[in-house]
Every structure is written in C-alpha cells, then in structure tokens.
Amino acid sequence: MAEKFKIQGGETLKGEVSVGGAKNSVLKLLAASILVKGQTKIYNVPQLTDVEIMLNVLSDLGAKYDYDKKEKSVVVDASEITSITAKYELVSKMRASFIILGALVSRCHEAIVALPGGCAIGERRVDFHIKGLEALGAKIKIENGYVHAKTSRLVGADIYLDIPSVGATENLMLAAVLAEGSTRIQNAAQEPEIIDLANFLNTIGADIQGAGTSEIIINGVKAENLHSAEYTTIPDRIEAGTFMAAVVATRGKAIIRNVYPAHLTFFNDKLIKMGASIKLAEPTAIEVSCKNRLNSINFVTQPYPGFPTDLQAIAMTLLTTSNGVGIITESLYENRFMQVPDLRRMGADIHQDRNHAIVKGVKNLTGATVAASDLRAGAALVIAGLMANGETIVEKLHHIDRGYEEFEAKITSLGGKIIRYDDENLTNNAKGVFNESCL
Questions:
Q1: Residue ranges making up the domain that contains 433
Q2: Is-above-0.90 flag for pTM?
Q3: How many domains does the chain have?
Q4: Residue 15 belongs to what H/E stretch?
Q5: Ordered strands of the 158-160 beta sheet
Q6: Is the peptide bond before 305 cis (omega within 30 degrees of 0)?
Q7: Is residue 119 annotated as a catalytic residue, yes or no?
Q8: Residue where one domain finishes, among candidates 165, 200, 232
Q9: DSSP 426
Q10: Which residue among 108, 119, 290, 438 is the active-site one?
C-alpha cells in the first residue's frame, strides 16, 4: 500500500534538529570502497533507500557489508569481487550507482554497468564519463542498455570536461586512482562531495590533489598501496538547507546542527536577502529564524559554489508567499520545475517559460492533495504543506525516502504536524499525532 504524508499547516517550527550524512557523498564513498581488497568502515551513513540500493549493487558484485543502522555505519569487505556487472534492476533505480563504473574499471580493468536511472529531472548524459574513460585507455561499447568498458591497463591523461559534471568528475577520479602516471581533470566539479570523495580516497592510500578547485590531479598508485581505513561522511548540505527553508517558511526559529556552514554560503546569502536571520551558533550549528513575510528575489542555479539546483524547488516554495515577484532560472536541468503544477494546486501564482519561472507572491497557500515527482520537489511540497492553510496530502513518498532520513520525525520534533500513513491504517510511528484529523 502506497504511503502518504498528511500535513496540518500553520504551525511554527522551532527547536533543534540534526542533519544526517550527505546522501550525495556517502553513495560515492560506498562505490569507492571496492577499490580496497579488504575492509573499510564508513560512519555517518544515513538510512535511505538510495543507500540500500548502493549496498545491493556492492553485494551483487561480490562485496560483503554490515550496515549498523543504530550506529549509522557501514563496513564493506571487498576482498573478493566476483562479478563485473552492475545490473539494470538496481542501476536504473538510482543514477548515483553509475559511479561504480569507474571503480570497477580501476580495480578489475573491465565493467558492465547499466545506463543510469534516478529522478526524472531532465537529461543527464554520460558522454563526459565515457570520453574521460576512453582518454584513460578504456575501450567502450554501449549496447542493450549497458556500458561495457574494458582495458588491459589504464594510463593517466589530461581530461577537460566541457561542463563541471559532478558524476563525471567522480567516475574519472575513481578510474584514475590505479592508473599508471598522473591524470589531470580540468574544469572539474568543485562540490563539497568531490572533496569528501578525494579525502576518502587519500585516506585509503590514493594520491589526489586539488579537489574543490577546477583542476584535480590524481597520481596513480599501485593496488597494493590501498588499504583498509575508517572515514566519516560530511553532513548533508541539502538536508540542512531544506530544514532552514522549512523554519523560515513557517516564520519560526531553530538551530540546525551537524552542518558545515561554508557549504551553504550562497544559499544562506539568498535567505538573508529575503529577510531571514542566520547566525553561527557553533562551528557546526546554524541558528535560523524569520519573523516577517519574506521578500522576493531572483536567482539562477549554478554549479557549486553557486545556488544549488537541489535547493531550487525548495526556494521556489518560499517565493510563493513572498512580497513581490521573483524569477528563478534553472540553468542545469531542463525538467526541474516539476513541482510547479502541484504548487499551483495549492494556490501559487507561477508562470513558467522554458527554464524560467516567474513567481508572484500570494497571501497564503491552501492545502491540497499533491504528489512528489522527484526527491527535491517532494521536499518542497512538504514545506508548502507546512506553510499552507488547512490539510495537505503528499503522495509518492518513495521519492522523498531516497534522500531524507526520518523526515517526518525531524519535522515533528520541531513542532510540525505531519504523519505517514497508508490508505487503510496509520503506520505505527504516526499513531498519536493529531489522530483526530486523519482518521
């Protein structure tokens, strides 16, 4: 039975909430773990469906794992890799699992990986991945929905990416770790998750310099130089931004813990310009508050350190009830305004013109039945429900569960009224929460 959120809007969020490990980082760390012919232990691993999928990918390849959900840690033992095929049934569910291609080619010199899936937010081609691997010496064939890469040896090369693709940068970093000589990736992605992957790889014995800049140097090492290690994933900057937006949207006040504030500089600046107050409470904690109606602003999504595309839908929700008119330009994905029809159902005044959205603030949103079309659009609709007058039902929660751990529990801890239920019964963790309005 499909689960749904039922949200009673109008409550002010306040208190404290702690952010989990970064989804977009830990998935790549798990893929990288197969480079080690032994055990690696990764801490701060969030309990997400995407994590389960990646662990299933590793298991299919022959690696063993122990996922301690209470400790939020995973031990991966990749002493033996018995398969070089990452199956369509798994890779099609989550685009990030395509990162296994670089790791497999690096370790086994051959890989057969299904073309990726994930959220339907627009075309995300793998051309840059393929061209980069070919530059390193891999022979590539694409047939029957699979990428087949094979090489007798990988040799370092200079690679220029036409755009700073995060996935291509990560795949090429993994492939180059065991290549002969040095690899230079120019116009590389600079996201914090790239730095986290490089730090993890260096911890297990790789030699990578320049991560976080536009030029990354990977000096190849021998397989026997890689070794077991323990590593802690960085906090999830997108989850942090989501909760900051939820607090601001409800004109509340809260401390967001387990945050690296530097990872949110551009987003924080936009919230402040809209009228929110953001203060550094501790080195890894941000106090966010808002007393008055926000002011509209314009913004353009850009690669890091610019405005994150993963927070675009959430920021749009803030604009729906702000003073004035705001214009959003989505420069990275052509189909990332999928939340617009549902926000309109809730009373938002949004005009879309290709990759531009013109949002005219209205006084209030009103509750409605809506559906998550992708991960971040789903989170945006939850925030809209918290802002709205009346009751909102959010369907298709499987999208939200891909990237937010204990989402409704964290919102409830801040005073929001939200429950998870199916069409026949409330789930056990929802019982006792404003039951009168959902039975």
A1: 4-20+235-437
A2: yes
A3: 2
A4: strand 14-18
A5: 158-160, 182-186, 215-219, 207-209
A6: yes
A7: yes
A8: 232
A9: B
A10: 119
